[in-house]
């Protein structure tokens, strides 16, 4: 069965008229529930169990994902049900949330890519166990990021620059990153990386993926060996926030049209400075700090979130 037949059957089943998808009234919120096609029955059962048929205003497909658009809001109990069903949702507090952002900043490690760069260096330099524990504590906010980074860098002193070259070749990006970059380019959204990782990898991704910007820490090498130091100021939580707001001003973008995505404690100030701050498969402390998160899906989930405005103003067919 084709994706479009599934979508059309759902529209008929819920008696949703084509091209009648609309925003709720000014004072009302709206939300989406989205997931891969294989979770279709789970979403339908959730809708039926909670008597939400009358609040459903649209259904469409984004890649291999189903998006259900509702007027109204979710209760705390319903949010818990969705989490247990491994279904992601996003709540739009107003029309500004629905507009396609013009600036989207992504964390790199464990967000844009599937690994933590410093842990990968440690693995290749036979220091994995020592470094991974410190990384975990830093990302969960248990220890200061600057202290933890310096501690890890000193432990990695002497690793050869060839390790970085290998990582550039082997880096694995998130399953949805290419689709997200293409979508952002289509609608003139500036997308790039603000990372507590390293420029060698961030700049490589910027070049290969044609991103608009990349910021990260610069490792210092002498005679092909890492010195244990970085050049310049550490890109920590506050620095990430400063870079994000600087980009907003340089691109002359309204605060209502900026978004940021990340997974670690050092992303929280940046996420909270964005109109849309989204936790991505994040640590508990991050999920508790922002209103919305992607827990179960790839970065295609961001396209699902941004698709609502495009469906409503009919500027893109899904």
Automatic annotation (TrEMBL):
> Which is one GO molecular function term here?
L-phosphoserine phosphatase activity
Please give the pathway this protein is involved in.
Answer: Amino-acid biosynthesis; L-serine biosynthesis; L-serine from 3-phospho-D-glycerate: step 3/3
Which GO BP terms apply?
Answer: L-serine biosynthetic process
Q: Which domain of life is it from?
A: Bacteria
What's the catalysed reaction?
O-phospho-L-serine + H2O = L-serine + phosphate; O-phospho-D-serine + H2O = D-serine + phosphate
Enzyme class of the recorded protein, top EC level: hydrolase
Which InterPro entries does the entry mention? HAD-like_SerB, HAD-like_sf, HAD_sf, PSP
Q: What is its EC number?
A: 3.1.3.3
* Keywords, alphabetical: Amino-acid biosynthesis, Hydrolase, Magnesium, Metal-binding, Serine biosynthesis
Q: Which co-factors does it depend on?
A: Mg(2+)
Recorded hits in Pfam families, A to Z, give: Hydrolase
**Metal-binding: is it a keyword of this entry?**
yes
Tell me which family the UniProt entry assigns to this protein. Answer: Belongs to the HAD-like hydrolase superfamily. SerB family.
Q: What is this protein called?
A: Phosphoserine phosphatase
């Amino acid at each position: 069965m084709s994706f479009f037949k599934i979508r059309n059957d759902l529209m008929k089943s819920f008696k949703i008229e084509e091209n009648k998808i609309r925003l709720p009234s000014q004072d009302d919120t709206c939300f989406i529930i989205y997931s891969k096609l294989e979770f279709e029955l789970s979403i339908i059962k959730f809708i039926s169990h909670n008597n939400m048929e009358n609040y459903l205003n649209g259904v469409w497909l984004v890649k291999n994902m189903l998006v259900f658009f509702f007027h109204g809001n979710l209760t705390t109990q319903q949010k818990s049900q969705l989490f247990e069903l491994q279904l992601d949702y996003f709540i739009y507090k107003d029309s500004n949330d629905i507009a396609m952002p013009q600036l989207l900043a992504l964390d790199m490690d464990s967000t844009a890519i599937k690994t933590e760069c410093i842990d990968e260096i440690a693995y290749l330099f036979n220091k994995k166990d020592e470094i991974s524990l410190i990384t975990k504590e830093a990302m969960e906010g248990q220890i200061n990021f600057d202290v933890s980074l310096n501690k890890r860098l000193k432990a990695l002193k002497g690793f050869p620059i060839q390790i970085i070259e290998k990582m550039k070749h082997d880096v694995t990006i998130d399953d949805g990153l290419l689709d997200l970059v293409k979508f952002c380019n289509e609608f003139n959204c500036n997308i790039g990386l603000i990372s507590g990782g390293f420029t060698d990898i961030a700049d490589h991704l910027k070049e290969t993926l044609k991103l608009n910007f990349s910021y990260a820490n610069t490792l210092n090498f002498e005679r092909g060996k890492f010195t244990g130091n970085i050049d310049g100021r550490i890109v920590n939580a506050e620095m990430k926030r400063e870079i994000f707001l600087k980009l907003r001003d340089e691109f002359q973008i309204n605060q209502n049209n900026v978004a940021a995505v990340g997974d670690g404690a050092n992303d929280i100030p940046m996420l909270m400075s964005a109109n849309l701050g989204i936790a991505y498969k994040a640590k508990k402390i991050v999920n508790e700090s922002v209103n919305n998160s992607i827990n179960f899906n790839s970065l295609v989930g961001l396209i699902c979130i941004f698709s609502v405005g495009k469906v409503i103003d009919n500027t893109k067919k899904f």
